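Data card: per-record layout.
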Amino acid sequence: MAGELLPPPDLAPTVSPDVTHEECLERWIEVMNLCEAFLLAGLRREIGPDGDLQAAYREWRRKRREEKDAHTIEWVRALSRAAERSGG
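The structure for this 88-residue chain is written out next.
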């Protein structure tokens, strides 16, 4: 299905049966921390060594929120149009 977030079963990552839920959570947190480190490194590269990293991060978040809001509004409008066409 187009737009589906889950990979096909043959490409899905596997987790060893001997890994506990706590270990999975710890790994997830490690990945999230690594993603944040990459994000902050990219922002630092953009603003330079003397730039305000916190302000750059806030601006990055603001832009992502605006994009998400615009996407959500368009999604709701599309649902509304579909409902009108189907008589709902």
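Known properties of this structure: The chain has a mean pLDDT of 92. The chain is about 70% helix and 0% strand.

See the next section for split statistics.
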